[in-house]
């Protein structure tokens, strides 16, 4: 697994996000360089079945994600998924998916640089996200594993609620928009900072 | 303490006095006061003069329905057009009365405004008796509940009366209800929050006042609710009679609120004029607070027995079967004249009784606050019993409760709220238990007499009978509208401006319908009301804008190399949401000097540009070639793997809408580029055709714009620079020919390198994953340093491509330009059966020979740079208008290699006119210019291989 060197989209905002975070209330940070591969394949078919075998988990249905070993698979559309893994996995994942498609119509594209991941965790995270996102993020409606493509702070974003005892969200944001999202986050989280008491 | 402020009672804190200034005079009030209650406590009734007639006007209501008491807040922050009845008193507050119109502050608003999205099962609007029982019932069922009320504290009408629930003061029950709601984790209480809009599918918008010292002063809530309960209460309606607008005339319920909520009495000798029961409570309560009640004038023939005995035992004079016909007083009412007016008589009798008073309380009945219900497309009907419009027919998942639904008593409000809350919970699939309700022991209410206006013996036209005090609209104005032939309430509203002020007719709307009814001799139900529209109360634009201002106004997109450009001091050009470096000034260079230098460097040495913003789309699938043949004008299926072709896209009308390059990656895979600003639109356009018109094509599109950072190296020495950091790559013109691509290693990273050129010079474009962008850029800059590598921005790129006659879509085209107009017929395939736009090229209009065509323009004065957009005309002198326009300048620059100004222009039949002299506007003169070919430099393409 190759360690990626270079500059992630939010490298220049690492400190800002750290300062923005409020321990015990809201934690915001970038998870850089994750492998992201777009998979397009007809959902009902032999190729999709082979992909599921390869991944070790069925392709998740609308609005959900699936854990497949050390990979995460997000439903992005009726015939589109995003396979997410640790950094440097793109060539393996691409190769495995191509092999699973076995010449059947589909598409596999490395888009690891297209988006970066921002993790938002803590009891305030739902409210914080709802400052810029109109989705209902209550656990009864957007529970662990749920994902959606939406707008956050007027920026295209893919939102995923991870499994965990406290709320943890991943925001997959286009690399060119990532700084805007970070700057918006610092502004939106300011009220939870200094002296703010968790209700 | 002033004689108008009671020693005890009310919900103010007498231990926390607040100083404030009104119209330059200093006064004192208390924590918990509104500006209006504090003014009344100081004996101040007149707040302003009226907008048209300049008459003195005072405080009339105790809430959002106030038509008169408009103030300009000067401190803490200037805000126009606030109603004194809704301004919370604060220490140091400064305000002045407004004659109808305020002024915006000249300084920026220092406060913070933001917004929040929220979802719930049940949204309860209003936290009076009905709202609280609705919220409690829904909350007990386990529903996610939001309950919002405009007031600073919950309780609604209960806070402004002396009512008792289960034998205890009503606020004890309110406190218990709030405490219980507090215990439910899924209940959100929003005091100080006005729900001001109800839109489709139960999307409601509210404004929360969080306090002057809060981190966020106001917050806009955008709420999506499965079920909505409108417990919005009701507004008391005034009566129309001659001189009904003087300061000192208040709504009876408002006087009761001032007494019980703020410990304030409005005067020393109070007359009451009513058509229903509710005003008696005000008379009795004020009497008990030590105020002299001059008389209670009731338009009904008799006084209801319970009120008759309560008044008689207090010695209050009762005048049933009477009406106030006129008032007098200079700055404040000092007398009313009362005449007998029995229910079946058209007009009051001629005999007048004069009654001295300093205050007149009026009540013409109560209008349910149906605004939000009506905004949600709920129906209304006129209830003869209530003399008001009430909900009649509910949209799905919306219901009203309490006095908003026309319930007359507290007991009925409590019950209807609980019922609405339960039904809302059940609609959400929950189980609601019957609620255990407190008892108010309300006395039965007798029907009012529906009185819209009292005919006046002295004012037969109605010039002093005010229907809308905020707009100074009178009965005479309504008469004039009807005289002009209008019958619809909507027309009369617009003609008279009735109900169009800040209060949107909360006191005048129904009254206006009633007055029209009487003047037309129709029924009120038939006349109806005007349309209720959001916002329910005024909302500041600052609140609606929220945080979307300044740097957060619109998302800014940057490339991976952005910070390098910033460090070099480059100004940026906005291209869509992207920031692109415009030019890189050195020392004292202005833009022109910097661009000339950058252009010179590319033409004679080597330049480097960040072109990461170009849109990139991965096209995959067995039918990819066929698909691209359909969407581009030229043929892409014949492109060999490893090669690149320029492509034009047209809309179905044959007009150019985007361009870019197409690289064939393998048999079934292409990588196409789009313009920076057009990327999203192109992807959407392609998906649209693929999904709706050609679903049989097996093709997938994936945006990879930001996966890649892309760097252009241009100039005769670009190969040399690249070779220093890509030693393993064959770069000579045979090994790496023009319009081809290959993968390789650049500065130690895997890269895809294209040999394409937008300047005519030998050039390469290097793409690496986003996170290596800056590193590879810096490696190229370092490698090029000995060769004088020069970073260049969008301006230089524009000049260089214009010298080569290459158009920029969106600058040299405007949606009316075909490839042929651009002189790019070579890019339109003659061999393909079909492609988007093809059929349009056979239209007579696209085949015209006098279409505007892209040509070059050289001003006669070589130092002149024509203005982009300058009109092109035939002659040096303008003929009489209309002046025939030949076209306009689309691009214009100073060229380093041409050593002169030059331009591209769209000119009628331009290609047939090469060599002709035409004229272009330059400020207020016309200058001569020669039409030339649109390619100015290196026509033969000798420079592209270096």
Task: Give an account of the 3D structure.
- The complex is a heterodimer of chains A (199) and B (946).
- Chain A has 199 residues and is of the alpha+beta class.
- Chain A has two domains: 11-32 and 114-192, 2-Layer Sandwich (Gyrase A, domain 2); 35-110, 2-Layer Sandwich (Alpha-Beta Plaits).
- Chain A is 24% helix and 31% strand.
- Chain A has helices at residues 14-20, 46-55, 90-101, 125-130, 178-189, and strands at 27-31, 35-41, 65-68, 71-77, 80-85, 106-110, 115-121, 147-152, 155-161, 168-174.
- In chain A, the strands form two sheets. Chain A has a five-stranded antiparallel sheet. A five-stranded antiparallel sheet of chain A has the order 3-4-5-2-6, covered by helices on one side.
- In chain A, helix 1 runs parallel beside helix 5 (178-189) and helix 2 runs antiparallel to helix 3 (90-101).
- The longest helix of chain A is centred in the middle third of the chain and has 12 residues, at 90-101.
- Chain A starts with 13 loop residues before the first helix and ends in a 10-residue tail after the last helix.
- With 946 residues, chain B is an alpha+beta fold.
- Chain B folds into seven domains: 1-109, Ubiquitin-like (UB roll), CATH 3.10.20; 113-235 and 368-427, 3-Layer(bba) Sandwich (FAD/NAD(P)-binding domain), CATH 3.50.50.60; 238-364, FAD/NAD(P)-binding domain (3-Layer(bba) Sandwich); 451-522, BFD-like [2Fe-2S]-binding domain (Arc Repressor Mutant, subunit A, Orthogonal Bundle); 562-612 and 707-800, Gyrase A, domain 2 (2-Layer Sandwich); 615-703, Aminomethyltransferase beta-barrel domains (Alpha-Beta Plaits); 848-946, Elongation Factor Tu (Ef-tu), domain 3, CATH 2.40.30.110.
- Helices cover 21% and strands 29% of the residues of chain B.
- Chain B has 21 helices and 49 strands.
- Classes of the chains: A alpha+beta (199), B alpha+beta (946).
- At the A-B interface, strand 6 and helix 5 of A face strand 8, strand 38 and helix 19 of B.
- Chain A: It holds the Pfam family SoxG.
- Chain A: This is Sarcosine oxidase subunit gamma.
């Amino acid at each position: 697994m190759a360690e990626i060197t270079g500059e992630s989209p939010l490298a220049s905002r690492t400190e800002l996000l750290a300062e923005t975070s409020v321990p015990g209330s809201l934690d915001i940070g970038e998870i850089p360089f994750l492998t992201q591969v777009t998979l397009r394949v007809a959902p009902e078919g032999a190729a999709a079945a082979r992909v599921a075998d390869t991944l070790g988990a069925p392709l998740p249905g609308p609005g959900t994600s699936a854990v497949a070993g050390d990979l995460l698979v997000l439903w992005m559309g009726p015939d589109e998924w995003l396979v997410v893994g640790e950094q440097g996995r793109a060539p393996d994942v691409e190769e495995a998916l191509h092999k699973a498609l076995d010449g059947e119509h589909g598409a596999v594209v490395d888009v690891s640089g297209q988006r970066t991941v921002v993790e938002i965790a803590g009891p305030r995270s739902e409210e914080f996200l709802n400052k810029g996102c109109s989705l209902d993020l209550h656990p009864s409606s957007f529970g662990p594993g749920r994902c959606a493509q939406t707008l956050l702070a007027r920026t295209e974003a893919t939102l995923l609620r991870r499994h965990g005892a406290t709320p943890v969200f991943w925001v997959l944001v286009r690399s060119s928009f990532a700084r805007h999202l970070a700057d918006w986050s610092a502004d939106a989280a300011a009220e939870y900072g200094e002296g703010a008491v968790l209700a | 303490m002033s004689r108008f402020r009671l020693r005890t009672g009310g919900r103010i804190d007498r231990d926390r006095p607040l100083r404030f200034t009104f119209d330059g005079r200093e006064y004192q009030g208390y924590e918990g006061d509104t500006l209006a209650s504090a003014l009344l406590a100081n004996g101040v009734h007149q707040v302003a003069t009226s907008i048209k007639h300049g008459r003195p006007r005072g405080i009339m209501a105790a809430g959002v329905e106030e038509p008169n008491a408009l103030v300009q807040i000067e401190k803490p922050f200037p805000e126009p057009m606030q109603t004194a009845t809704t301004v919370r008193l604060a220490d140091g507050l400064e305000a002045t009365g407004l004659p109808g119109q305020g002024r915006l502050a000249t300084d920026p608003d220092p406060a913070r405004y933001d917004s929040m999205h929220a979802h719930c099962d049940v949204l309860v609007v209003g936290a009076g008796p009905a709202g609280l029982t609705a919220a409690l019932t829904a909350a007990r069922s386990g529903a996610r509940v939001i309950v919002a009320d405009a007031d600073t504290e919950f309780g609604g009408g209960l806070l402004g009366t002396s009512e008792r629930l289960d034998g205890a003061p009503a606020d004890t029950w309110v406190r218990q209800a709030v405490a219980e709601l507090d215990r439910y984790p899924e209940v959100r209480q929003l005091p100080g929050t006005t729900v001001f809009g109800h839109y489709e599918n139960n999307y409601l918008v509210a404004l929360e006042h969080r306090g002057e010292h809060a981190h966020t002063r106001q917050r806009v809530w955008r709420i999506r609710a499965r079920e909505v309960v409108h417990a919005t209460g009701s507004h008391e309606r005034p009566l129309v009679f001659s001189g009904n607008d003087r300061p000192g005339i208040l709504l009876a319920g408002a006087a009761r609120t001032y007494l019980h909520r703020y410990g304030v009495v409005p005067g020393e000798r109070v007359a009451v004029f009513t058509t229903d029961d509710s005003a008696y409570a005000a008379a009795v309560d004020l009497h008990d607070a030590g105020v002299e009640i001059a008389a209670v004038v009731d338009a009904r023939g008799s006084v209801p027995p319970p009120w008759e005995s309560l008044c008689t035992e207090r010695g209050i004079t009762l005048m049933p079967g009477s009406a106030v016909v006129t008032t007098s007083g200079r700055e404040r009412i000092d007398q009313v004249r009362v005449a007998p007016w029995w229910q079946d008589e058209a007009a009051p009798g001629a005999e007048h009784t004069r009654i001295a008073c300093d205050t007149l309380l009026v009540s013409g009945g109560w209008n349910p606050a149906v605004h939000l219900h009506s905004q949600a497309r709920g129906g209304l009907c006129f209830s003869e019993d209530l003399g008001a419009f009430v909900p009649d027919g509910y949209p799905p998942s919306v219901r009203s409760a309490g006095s908003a639904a026309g319930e007359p008593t507290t007991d009925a409000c409590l019950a209807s709220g609980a019922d609405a809350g339960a039904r809302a919970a059940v609609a959400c699939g929950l189980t609601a238990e019957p609620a255990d309700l407190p008892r108010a022991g309300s006395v039965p209410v007798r029907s009012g007499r529906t009185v819209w206006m009292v005919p006046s013996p002295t004012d037969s036209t109605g010039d002093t009978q005010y229907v809308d005090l905020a707009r100074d609209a009178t009965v005479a104005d309504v008469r004039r509208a009807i005289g002009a032939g209008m019958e619809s309430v909507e027309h009369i509203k617009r003609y008279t401006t009735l109900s169009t002020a800040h209060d949107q007719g909360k006191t005048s709307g129904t009254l206006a319908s009633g007055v029209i009814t009487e003047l037309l001799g129709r029924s009120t139900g038939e006349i109806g009301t005007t349309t209720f529209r959001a916002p329910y109360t005024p909302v500041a634009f600052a609140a609606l804008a929220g945080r979307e201002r300044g740097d957060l106004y619109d998302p800014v997109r940057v490339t991976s190399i952005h910070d390098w450009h910033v460090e070099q001091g480059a100004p940026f050009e906005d291209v869509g949401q992207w920031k692109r470096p415009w030019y890189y000034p050195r020392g004292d260079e202005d833009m022109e000097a910097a661009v000339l230098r950058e252009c010179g460097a590319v033409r004679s040495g080597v330049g480097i540009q960040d072109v990461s913003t170009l849109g990139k789309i991965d096209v995959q699938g067995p039918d990819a070639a066929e698909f691209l043949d359909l969407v581009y004008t030229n043929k892409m299926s014949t492109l060999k793997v490893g090669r690149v072709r320029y492509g034009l896209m047209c809309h179905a009308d044959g007009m150019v809408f985007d361009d870019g390059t197409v690289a064939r990656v393998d048999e079934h895979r292409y990588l196409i580029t789009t313009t920076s600003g057009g990327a999203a639109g192109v992807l959407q356009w392609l998906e649209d055709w693929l999904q709706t018109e050609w679903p049989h094509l097996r093709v997938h599109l994936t945006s990879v714009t930001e996966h890649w950072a892309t760097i252009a190296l241009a100039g005769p020495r670009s190969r040399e620079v690249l070779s220093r950091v890509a030693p393993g790559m064959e770069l000579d013109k045979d090994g790496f020919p023009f319009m081809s691509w290959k993968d390789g290693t650049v500065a130690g990273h895997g890269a895809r390198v294209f040999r394409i050129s937008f300047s005519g010079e030998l050039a390469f474009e290097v793409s690496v994953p986003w996170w290596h962008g800056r590193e590879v850029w810096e490696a190229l800059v370092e490698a090029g340093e000995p060769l004088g590598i020069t970073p260049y921005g969008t301006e230089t790129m524009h000049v260089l491509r214009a010298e080569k006659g290459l158009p920029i879509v969106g600058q040299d085209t405007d949606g009316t330009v075909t490839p042929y107009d651009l002189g790019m017929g070579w890019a339109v395939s003659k061999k393909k059966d079909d492609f988007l736009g093809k059929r349009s090229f056979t239209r007579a209009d696209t085949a015209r020979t006098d279409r505007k065509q892209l040509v070059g323009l050289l001003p006669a004065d070589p130092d002149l740079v024509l203005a982009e957009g300058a009109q092109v005309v035939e002659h040096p002198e303008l003929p009489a208008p209309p002046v025939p326009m030949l076209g306009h300048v689309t691009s214009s620059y100073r060229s380093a290699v041409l050593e002169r100004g030059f331009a591209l222009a769209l000119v009628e039949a331009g290609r047939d006119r090469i060599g002709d002299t035409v004229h272009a506007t330059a400020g207020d003169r016309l200058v001569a210019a020669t039409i030339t070919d649109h390619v100015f430099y290196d026509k033969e393409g000798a420079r592209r291989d270096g």
